[in-house]
Amino acid sequence: MPAKALDARALAALAANPGCRRRAILDGAGVNKAALASALGAPSVFGQSQFAFVRGNAFEAKVKADGGTELLRLAHEKLDRAAEPPAGAHVPDLTAQGPEGRTARTELALREATEAATAAPGAWTLLDHPMLALDVAGSPAFLEPDAVVVHPDGSWTVVEIKSFPMLDGAADPAKVGAAARQAAVYVLALERVAARLEPSPRVRHRILLVCPKDFSNLPTASAVDVRKQRAVTARQLDRLTRIEEIADTLPEGTCFSPELPAERLAAAVESVPATYAPECLSACELAFHCRDRSRAAGAVTRLGRPVRAELGALTTVEEVLAAARGEAGDPDDPTVAALRRAAALRAEALADAPVPVAAREVAPCR
After folding, report:
1. Looking at the structure, do residues 136 and 203 belong to the same domain, yes or no?
2. Is residue 7 included in any domain, yes or no?
3. What tens digit of pLDDT does each residue of 319-364 get?
């Protein structure tokens, strides 16, 4: 099976759930989780439609037309009004052999653009689909932002081009948040490149989000501060267990090929512990499979991370109910005491509640 490379969207989702060893090993090995989920009988239902994909490509081409004239105008308007307006831009050729070659070519182009901005103030440079590398738990990930702008002062800005609209200057907050988390990964990767240059250029933490204006196909933009997302992503990626450590715990001969028999494939997947949460449903192709297993095991994680945090050492729904009924648990444990108090209040409320007419009519039939 061809390996599926990690992208910024996958890294953002991985960073949002760093305790999930299953996702870490599958992403690190380049496993196609969508094909894996289908083979397990729990196919994922989210993803970009072909129509949205084509529309997004057409909009991006429009934004970058004429050497990125419109894109640079938006960058000047939203991020750098004090600089000279872009009369034109240098758009270097970033083609090279393989992702490693493209990464090296991108780093060279960034160095040359920064030096040119220092030598000739007022020059703008646009890098169209550069390739960046980021080490993730010991496994390299190659990332491809939509664009990177080098400003006349030598600083760098990440550009995200999305096809969802901005209505009256504002876009869907959930979609903007997802774009910010994705852009934060690119910012981290750019900072790694900047650290290798002397002097180190500044990587701006305000990215340029370009979207269609209202219901038209005309581009508009907004500056989005990603400092919070960048800090969270960096901390979560640092917490990820190294892929080698996870692989060493697997049984010999473990294989995740979707072509394996269902029983063997399920056993291989279950050999790696997962940390399921409801948020996985919008970020991971294996979410439905993990949710089914979480329900079967009665795990409280399926109720959400806030609930899981409140329940302390109680890890299953049966343990929670037993503690609430007074059948198990230490009475001095604050969690157990709170559950028993809640159960008592619920019983009191139900005892005082009037029985509905429909229930009184049906009761004799039972």
Report:
1. yes
2. no
3. 888 888 888 877 888 888 888 888 888 888 888 656 554 444 444 4
